[in-house]
Automatic annotation (TrEMBL):
Annotated protein name in UniProt: Uncharacterized protein
Keyword Acyltransferase: no
PROSITE patterns: LRR (PS51450)
Top-level taxon of origin: Eukaryota
One Pfam family from the record: LRR_1
PANTHER family: LEUCINE RICH REPEAT-CONTAINING DOMAIN PROTEIN (PTHR48051:SF46), PTHR48051
Record key words, sorted: Leucine-rich repeat, Repeat
InterPro entries named in the record: Leu-rich_rpt, Leu-rich_rpt_typical-subtyp, LRR_dom_sf, LRR_domain-containing
Length: 383
């Protein structure tokens, strides 16, 4: 005769199987199916499911109150999407992740994770990773090896920093969400994420942003709001984000917006409320986005006009000559050729520079571009 505990276990197993099969949908008969067993250590319950052996294979174990995982009998290599969200999982086994060679989406949100396994770097095909709503204090350095990653959601954790190399390797990343953490700084390598379209870093403790943000040529949405008194200034490069459509810097400690804000021609939504702003003044802010951009543009032009011409030349041309960034002006001996006027080379052969403070040209005169050995604005004379 079957004992009470065995009957109870069968009842739990049957109910979980029914729920699981309903989520997975019907299985087409013409496809070869593979029997898979997921053993979850959760009061002895076991879930067994049949999934398609060809094409996309998705495993949905969301909301099953799982505390831990053991999947030694599953063919993990064929799973493309795994949803383990809304459970009580505290740890993901290294060996389990290392076997998910074809996984492209992993959802671990709303669990009790304190760390992610280092083997996550083995997921070379992973495109979407959601680890929001956990207790993570850091992300593993090996996440840089997920080179196919396009979306990373790490909201609502306890992150104090991001891997320094994250920007050098995750070049396909289009969306980075790290809001509601304890971040103080964003890694300087972030500026190498040239595919990035959305950066959400609100509700942190950021004290500053990376200087060379202008390299984020595809960034459309930047949200660094609600860092409160920690964030007191924005870098000049914010105004050089030429693809930016939405900028939210509200509820910080910013007193002066950089003049370069006037160059953001595509910005349609600009949220700057909740700051102790002096420039632009409140009466300009109340007039809307276009009024703010116009004010900052005029302020930038006026500031440039007040700069002595000699200082302009020293800042623009003299510095470039010092670092030898003009191309095609060297003799066979390696020395720079050409007439010099007042210690500078004669640049009459180069195209005229007009409207240096206008939105059209301001990005070309960013100091980082001027000092670059591959500067494209100053080109050799044509003969």
């Amino acid at each position: 005769m079957m004992g009470y505990e065995q009957m109870n276990q069968i009842t739990v197993t049957t109910a979980m199987m029914k729920n699981f099969n309903n989520q997975m949908g019907p299985i087409r008969s013409h496809k070869k199916t593979t029997r898979r067993t997921v053993a979850t250590i959760n009061g002895g319950a076991a879930v067994t499911a049949a999934t398609a052996g060809e094409g996309d294979s998705r495993l949905n174990l969301t909301g099953m109150s799982l505390a831990s995982l053991s999947a030694s009998s599953i063919d993990l290599a064929s799973i493309s999407k795994l949803d383990l969200s809304n459970n009580n999982i505290q740890q993901i086994p290294e060996s389990l992740v290392a076997r998910m060679l074809n996984l492209w989406e992993l959802d671990l949100h709303s669990n009790q994770l304190k760390t992610l396994p280092n083997s996550i770097g083995c997921l070379s095909k992973l495109k979407v990773l959601n680890v929001s709503g956990n207790n993570l204090q850091c992300l593993p350095e090996t996440i840089k090896d997920c080179k196919s990653l396009e979306e990373l959601n790490a909201n609502f954790n306890e992150l104090t920093s991001l891997p320094e190399t994250i920007g050098f390797e995750l070049t396909n990343l289009t969306k980075l969400s790290v809001n509601s953490n304890k971040l103080v700084l964003l890694p300087s390598s972030l500026s190498h994420l040239t595919s990035l379209r959305v950066l959400d870093a609100r509700l942190n403790c950021l004290v500053m942003l990376p200087d060379d943000l202008e390299n984020l040529v595809n960034l459309q949405v930047l949200n660094v709001s609600q860092n409160f008194h920690h964030l007191k200034a924005l870098p000049y490069s914010v105004g050089l984000l030429m693809s930016l459509v939405e900028l939210d810097v509200s509820y910080n400690g910013i007193m002066v917006l950089p003049d370069s804000i006037g160059c953001l021609r595509r910005v349609q939504k600009l949220s700057i409320e909740g700051n102790p702003l002096v420039s632009p003044p409140l009466e300009v802010v109340e007039q809307g986005v276009e009024a703010v951009k116009q004010y900052m543009s005029e302020k930038m032009t006026e500031s440039y006009k007040k700069t002595p011409m000699k200082k302009k030349l020293r800042g623009a041309i003299g510095t470039v000559v010092k670092f030898r960034t003009f191309h095609g002006l060297r003799s066979s001996s390696g020395r720079i050729t050409g007439d010099r006027v007042g210690g500078f080379i004669n640049v009459s052969d180069y195209r005229q520079i007009n409207g240096i403070a206008s939105p059209r040209h301001v990005s070309h005169f960013n100091p980082l571009r001027l000092l670059s050995p591959v500067s494209s604005y100053f080109s050799p004379p044509r003969h």
